[in-house]
Amino acid sequence: MDLTRIIQQLRAERHRVQQAIATLEQFQQERNTAGPTHRKRGRKSMGAEERKVAAERMKTYWARKRQQEVKQPSEDS
């Protein structure tokens, strides 16, 4: 049994493990300081032109809805 050779192998192994740990810690630190990588959930904001188009579309929708109510009065009245 060559103890000197075993000790050298174990030291080499320890060095590889320490390098791997250092690399993983660095990766973890970079990832934490980079900020969130996911997008926020929720509605997207509309620009002025999109808002104008949506407003016109809704005006048309409600105008048609009022016309239908005039043609067919509700049965509750």
What does this entry look like structurally?
This protein has 77 residues and is mostly helical. It has a domain of 33 residues. It has two helices and no strands. The longest helix is centred in the N-terminal third of the chain and has 31 residues.
Show the helix and strand layout.
Blueprint: H1 3-33, H2 48-71
Name some characteristics of this structure:
77 residues, 2 helices, mainly alpha
Write a brief caption for the model:
By secondary structure, the protein is mostly helical.
State the major sheet.
none
How many β-strands, per DSSP? 0
How big is the Rg?
Answer: 34 Å
Percent of residues in helices comes to over 70%
Shape: rod-shaped
Q: In angstroms, what separates the terminal alpha carbons? A: 103 Å
Give the structural class: mainly alpha
Measured by DSSP, the beta-strand proportion falls in: under 5%
- Average the pLDDT over all residues and give the rounded result: 88
State the helix count: 2
Provide the low-confidence segments as ranges.
none
Tell me the series of helices and strands, N- to C-terminal: HH
